[in-house]
Amino acid sequence: MNRLINRYILKEIALAFAMIVFILTFVLLMGKILQLMDLMINKGISFTTIAQMTLFLMPSFLIFSIPISLLIAILIGLGRLSGDNEITILKMSGVSLYQIAFPVACAALAASLLTAATTFFLVPYGNIATRNLLFDMAKQKATIGIREKVFIDDFRGILLYAEKIPVHGDFLEGVLISDNRILREPNTIFARRAYLISDIDTQAVTLRLEDGSTHTVDAGLKNYRKMDFRLYDIRLDLAESLTTDLKTGEKSSMDMTVTELTAKLRSHGINDQTYREMLLVLNKKLTVPLSCLIFAFIGVPFGIRAHRAVRSRGFAIGVLLILIYYLLSLSGEALAETGRLSPAIGAWAPNGIFAIAGILFFYFAAREQSPWVRRNPVSTYVSLPDEIGKKLKSPS
């Protein structure tokens, strides 16, 4: 009997969970769709490459969509059972709230393990794979990362600005370059047109300038030199600009696994800001999977409350709880990054607050009491008519 009930509740939650994960992940991905479509339509990037990039971006969305979808699915699933009085029938049959919560806890544990695998392994792998794929795309189509009327500092020692870029992106017009690779003699270069020529073998891109001039001032600001040119080549080393961290043995904290972050935190020579950032990222990687279990704990007491508008009420409560949780999370991160709060406390505070609230709400729901109403024993006196009172007092 218990297995049948568990499968029934799990099915109710699983269907809602799968649908919400799909919709929410798609909504989060929509923020990148326009950029990906621009790469495919205007920059000539193949559909296969766009599909690979989408796949690599998915883990960074799933770490948010899985916990959120779980909470809303629990609220909608249990709310549907409560709205149809099925929860009431189960209780009248002797099924306690702890038995009802068992399949929900199993679903939360599975979601927590999936989120942990995504956070610990898939997100770092996806970030690095996306970075390598962008590098390969840049070698084939060097103008991908350059936008018109935007200063680009992706290349070490070089600041690049293009007034206009045609739709096909074969050349740049109205080019301004600040070359600071030679510290004693920084150059400012103006050119009417520029072409980006990629060399796959050397993993470098050459910026070929046409019809321009270079302007150089020495460190003492005493000598000024101008040189006009017909053609002028500047080597842009993409391997150096994109993989600087890899050459120095460094990775971004978001690209590190839990093992790498732990080893880095134990090493010496890290400044306070970097240490706080890495410690915060490490604690966030641990708190995100645990949030699935906490959301399940707080979702059960809210979900079993009967209401006519089951889906809309469950969705509204879920959005409100998620909004409160992530506001607390963002506040904790901001305080931790500025040094006003310990990174561990800033990362774990939202989970701690929601865990305490979930335990209290679950306790009151198990005892079928409301946490908002305090019930005091009240003596009730009923006044009866005199004739009825005399009959009741007289012996039969």
Counting DSSP H or I runs of 4 or more residues, the number of helices is 11
Shape: elongated
Measured between the Cα atoms of the first and last residue, the distance is 52 Å
Beta-strand content: 5-15%
Query: What number is the mean pLDDT?
Result: 81
Give the number of domains. Answer: 2
- Low-pLDDT runs of 5+ residues are 239-249, 377-384
Give the beta-strand count: 6
Q: What profile does the largest beta sheet have? A: 6 strands, antiparallel
Q: H/E element string? A: HHHHEEEEEEHHHHHHH
SS content category = alpha+beta
What is the CA-atom radius of gyration, in angstroms?
31 Å
Helicity, in percent?
A: 55-70%
Q: Order of strands across the biggest sheet?
A: 1-2-3-4-5-6
Give your account of this protein's structure.
There is one protein chain. The protein has 396 residues and is α+β, with helices and mostly antiparallel strands. The protein folds into 2 domains: 2-138 and 265-366, no CATH class; 157-236. It contains 11 helices and 6 strands. Strands 1-2-3-4-5-6 form a 6-stranded antiparallel beta sheet. The longest helix has 44 residues, at 97-140.
Task: Give a quick rundown of the structure.
The protein is of the alpha+beta class. The chain contains eleven helices and six strands.
Record keyword descriptors for this entry.
11 helices; 2 domains; about 15% strand; alpha+beta; elongated; six-stranded antiparallel β-sheet; about 400 residues
How are the SSEs placed, and which strands pair?
Blueprint: H1 2-41, H2 47-83, H3 86-92, H4 97-140, E1 152-155, E2 158-164, E3 172-179, E4 187-199, E5 204-217, E6 224-236, H5 238-242, H6 244-247, H7 258-266, H8 272-303, H9 310-337, H10 343-366, H11 386-393
Antiparallel strand pairs: 1-2, 2-3, 3-4, 4-5, 5-6
Helix pairs in contact: 1-2, 1-4, 2-4, 2-8, 2-9, 4-8, 7-8, 8-9, 8-10, 9-10
